[in-house]
Automatic annotation (TrEMBL):
This is VOC family protein. InterPro entries: Glyas_Bleomycin-R_OHBP_Dase, Glyas_Fos-R_dOase_dom, GlyoxalaseI/FosfomycinResist, VOC_core. Pfam families: Glyoxalase. It comes from the Bacteria. The lineage of its organism: Bacteria, Bacillati, Actinomycetota, Actinomycetes, Micrococcales. Residues 297-324 are annotated as: Disordered. SUPFAM superfamilies: Glyoxalase/Bleomycin resistance protein/Dihydroxybiphenyl dioxygenase. Residues 7-119, 149-271 form the VOC domain.
Length: 339
């Protein structure tokens, strides 16, 4: 298959309070509001090459409304649409949106909205925001917590391996790793990528009956020191760290997680490996190997299993599931001992 997708271009999320969420991303996180259109905020990181990477719209609940990927070429956009339809999903062509050209919009087999486009408006810095680096779209933010660019999105699904297989077959995402529980052959996590990054699409097991949910959105900083400073700045300004800073075994990325005002989870990453191997064979990790927290010295808080919008009805509480299995499913990345 020729390369179809290049990278994640932007995410569209919903929040009950657009103003509060926007203020958070601007004042606490150091993103910049570039456009306000029909009540939606268009936000960018200083290193984003397109006009914006995050759209914040009104919705009754926190959710992922859309994820937008840029194709490798104009021809690849047509090929991607044909491949999606050949894989059994019918989407539709939509006219250009704000700062991008015509797009193919579809809902994947596990309920996630995805938009593909090639034509896009490159960001040109307004006077006062130019960088002295010719390759930088904008000068580095002076905000101490500012992320450089959008990194990835991690969604939730009822069938992690089925999800990974479909996005691999239909769109050429490389499957980089899986996590199966120590106690049982249940796959709770996978990472996929369109490029050399360890992942730009993650997927966690969703044991609720609500399809199309998101677990977190993630941004990037250059160094571990930048990440630690963000934790410090966030803590000093009243935003607790939900989990981390620590390092994921899978992908070898430094991480921290916090919540924005809607309660949606935001991750910050630095580091991690690069992988260019076209026929990479995904390994299956166990949580006890440190798939999530490589140091294995701190259990993941239960709150990390919450995806968005909120849902009830964990199937792990159904009759027949052992106490051990309920706990494992409710907290799939908890440490299972150090082997
Ligand atoms: Fe993540």
């Amino acid at each position: 298959m020729d390369k179809l997708l290049s990278h994640l271009a932007h995410l569209e999320i919903t929040t009950p309070d657009v103003e509060a969420s926007t203020r958070f991303y601007v004042e606490k996180f150091g993103m910049r509001l570039v456009d306000s259109i029909d009540g939606a905020s268009y936000l960018r990181c200083w290193g984003d090459h397109y006009r914006y990477s995050l759209v914040v719209r009104h919705g009754d609940e926190p959710s992922l409304a859309n994820m937008a990927w840029r194709t490798a070429s104009a021809e690849a956009l047509d090929a991607a649409a044909a491949s999606i339809e050949a894989a059994g999903v019918q989407g539709e062509w939509v006219p250009g949106g704000h700062a991008h050209g015509k797009a193919y919009q579809f809902t994947g087999p596990y309920g996630h909205s995805m938009k593909l486009f090639y034509e896009v408006e490159k960001y040109v810095a307004e006077p006062g925001f130019e960088s002295v680096y010719p390759d930088r779209p904008e000068r580095r933010s002076s905000h101490a917590a500012a992320p450089r660019f959008l990194d990835h999105v991690t969604v939730a699904t009822s069938d992690v391996r089925g999800f990974a297989d479909w996005y691999n077959r239909a769109l050429g995402f490389r499957i980089m790793a899986f996590t199966d529980l120590d106690e049982a052959p249940i796959t709770v996590f996978s990472v996929l990528t369109t490029n050399e990054k360890s992942h730009d699409l993650g997927v966690v097991l969703d044991t609720s009956d609500r399809a199309g949910r998101v677990n977190h959105i993630a941004f990037w900083v250059d160094t571990h020191e930048d990440l630690l400073r963000t934790a410090d700045v966030m803590m000093e300004n009243g935003t607790p760290m939900e989990y981390g800073p620590s390092i994921h075994g899978i992908g070898e990325q430094n991480f921290l997680y916090f919540r924005e005002p809607s309660t949606l989870r935001v991750e910050l990453n630095s580091g991690g490996y690069r992988n260019y191997v076209p026929d990479w064979e995904a390994k299956t990790w166990k949580p006890s190997e440190g798939s999530n927290n490589f140091y294995r010295n701190g259990a993941m808080p239960h709150s990390m299993t919450e995806s968005f919008p909120p849902a009830e009805g964990f199937t792990a509480t159904e009759e027949g599931a052992s106490e051990e299995m309920k706990q494992a499913l409710l907290n799939p990345y908890a440490e299972q001992g150090r082997g």
